[in-house]
């Protein structure tokens, strides 16, 4: 065998080179085998391929079937299942609570959560910084604080109902997912920037919302192959990913302009300035744009830039989540005549000027809400965390430091022990729930990284459901334009999304 183009000197016999190459290959295979066999995760049950790769679950993440697939692995292998050489999923409630509890040491997996190098309450990894931010921002989402913003929600919800009614009358049916998405965007933009995006009036998303949706659509890809986005910066034939930088830039610029505009209004002492989520912080001197405060990262005193970044994360985390959950709530109610009859009856007993406080006290509405959050809450997929340096024992299995441990509501909320006949949409199961049912229920996450917007989400869900079913007690699912249950099959990547990206309803 000759090596004409190589730099190997002529005096080295080619058979020696070939033997060396075979030797290196053999060593590599042996080392890999050794690592696979001695991997501390090898005692954790899982499919055979999980010893070598996590590619099968990554591909399922992209196709929206990871959560159902991982659930099937739990059914086969038990509450702790291996998904790859350095990855496991846990569905044992005690172990899930261990992972997410305060001071557990498990941090959010940076491959999944951190984007754009900015630190918001959502993306921050450092627990000290995060705790300080939550202390500052938590009160903005307290129920009493949100009551001052209730008129914003009601005004936008009434406009949505009017739009739905118009479209059903003129087009014969309407897409509630589309309109609830615009509703949620308008509400959160007004709550962050003091002025709604007015997307409901226009009937479609603005550029900012499109940009945020585009960035969100890349999350599964980023979660599966974080290096791909990095690589895209260097490889010229990835124009799609190259646009991401420009999109992100546009989002920051637009948010900055909106926040600056709001601060100018506040400083002008205009009495017409609308309250925002951040009003109490601004009143205490937050939101300043001085050079000293500009640097993002000061946890106690939020600068204008911090408020812009936080707003962006609320718009990302608080729009589709609310719109999708609300859409599934209506869909589930419309598929169950007895549930609809009882809910509509209860809502019709409300006085005309009802408030969110009245809705909080309605028994059946809240049962329907809990059951929707169990089966159709928007967050059903993996919430990945990294095992701390000291390692962990989860449901009896030792898990070494650095391993990614995920938990998923899809499995927790379908645990037959906690929820008999788990696939059945049955609000009455929450009338007198067993401790197991309460324990496994985590639609908004648990612990210090739970959802900061959960009070806002529940408020929006209650108000919209009440206004919708009072306005349209006889509404039904439509079969126009080929709409069927297949359109509502949940696809789960980062969030749940109906497979058809629509939910059409009509009046009789
Ligand atoms: C039905 C609606 C919603 C659902 C089901 C939901 C669910 C969740 C879940 C499960 C988490 C935990 C994520 C994790 O542990 O990795 C979370 C976190 C978060 N959510 Fe929500 N969410 C909803 C609405 C909202 C709204 C309206 C807002 C906005 C204002 C919001 C803002 C956030 C933020 C900022 C975090 C990160 C909190 C932190 O890490 O400290 N969410 N949400």
Automatic annotation (TrEMBL):
Query: Does the keyword Heme belong to this entry?
Result: yes
Taxonomically, the superkingdom here is Eukaryota
Q: Respond yes or no to whether keyword Transmembrane is given for this record.
A: yes
The entry's keywords: Heme, Iron, Membrane, Metal-binding, Monooxygenase, Oxidoreductase, Transmembrane, Transmembrane helix
Gene3D superfamilies (UniProt xref) = Cytochrome P450
Q: Annotated Gene Ontology MF terms?
A: heme binding; iron ion binding; monooxygenase activity; oxidoreductase activity, acting on paired donors, with incorporation or reduction of molecular oxygen
Q: Which InterPro entries match?
A: Cyt_P450, Cyt_P450_CS, Cyt_P450_E_grp-I, Cyt_P450_sf, Cytochrome_P450_monoxygenase
Can you tell me which residues bind heme? 451
Which parts of the chain span the membrane according to its record?
12-34
Cofactor section: heme
Q: Which family does it belong to?
A: Belongs to the cytochrome P450 family.
- Tell me the protein's name: Cytochrome P450
């Amino acid at each position: 065998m000759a090596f004409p183009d190589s730099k190997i000197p002529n005096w080295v016999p080619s058979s020696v080179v070939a033997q060396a190459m075979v030797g290196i290959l053999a060593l590599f295979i042996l080392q890999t085998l050794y690592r696979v066999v001695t991997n501390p995760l090898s005692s954790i049950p899982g499919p055979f391929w999980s010893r070598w790769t996590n590619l099968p679950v990554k591909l399922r993440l992209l196709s929206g079937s990871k959560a159902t697939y991982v659930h099937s692995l739990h059914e086969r292998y038990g509450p702790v299942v291996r998904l790859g050489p350095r990855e496991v999923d846990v569905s044992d409630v005690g172990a899930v609570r261990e992972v997410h509890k305060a001071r557990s040491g498990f941090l959010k997996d940076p491959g999944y959560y951190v984007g754009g190098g900015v630190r918001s309450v959502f993306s921050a990894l450092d627990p000290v910084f995060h705790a300080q931010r939550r202390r500052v921002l938590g009160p903005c989402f307290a129920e009493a604080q949100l009551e001052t913003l209730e008129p914003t929600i009601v005004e936008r919800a009434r406009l949505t109902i009017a739009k739905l009614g118009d479209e059903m009358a003129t087009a014969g049916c309407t897409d509630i997912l589309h309109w609830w998405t615009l509703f949620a965007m308008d509400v959160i933009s007004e709550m962050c920037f003091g002025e709604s995006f007015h997307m409901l009036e226009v009937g479609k998303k603005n550029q900012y919302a499109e940009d945020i949706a585009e960035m969100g659509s890349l999350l599964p890809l980023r979660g599966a192959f974080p290096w791909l986005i990095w690589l895209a910066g260097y490889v010229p034939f990835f124009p799609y990913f190259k646009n991401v930088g420009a999109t992100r830039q546009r989002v920051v610029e637009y948010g900055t302009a909106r926040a600056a505009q709001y601060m100018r209004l506040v400083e002008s002492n205009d009495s017409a300035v609308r309250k925002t989520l951040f009003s109490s912080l601004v009143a205490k001197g937050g939101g300043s744009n001085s050079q000293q405060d500009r640097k993002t990262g000061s946890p106690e005193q939020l600068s204008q830039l911090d408020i812009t970044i936080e707003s962006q994360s609320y718009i990302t985390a608080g729009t589709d989540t609310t719109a999708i959950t609300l859409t599934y709530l209506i869909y589930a109610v419309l598929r169950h005549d007895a549930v609809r009859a009882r809910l509509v009856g209860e809502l019709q007993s409300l006085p005309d000027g009802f408030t969110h406080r009245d809705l909080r006290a309605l028994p059946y509405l809240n049962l329907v809400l809990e059951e929707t959050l169990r089966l159709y809450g928007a967050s059903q997929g993996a919430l990945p965390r990294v095992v701390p340096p000291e390692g962990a024992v989860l449901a009896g299995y030792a898990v070494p430091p650095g391993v990614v441990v995920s938990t998923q509501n899809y499995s927790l909320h379908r645990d037959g022990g906690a929820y008999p006949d788990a696939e059945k949409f049955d609000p009455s199961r929450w009338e007198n729930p067993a401790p197991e049912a309460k324990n496994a229920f985590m639609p908004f996450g648990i612990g210090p990284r739970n959802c900061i917007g959960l009070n806002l989400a529940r408020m929006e869900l209650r108000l919209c459901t009440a206004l919708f079913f009072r306005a349209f007690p006889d509404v039904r699912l439509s079969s126009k334009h080929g709409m069927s249950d297949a359109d509502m099959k949940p696809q789960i990547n980062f969030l749940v999304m109906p497979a058809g990206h629509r939910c059409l309803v009509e009046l009789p």
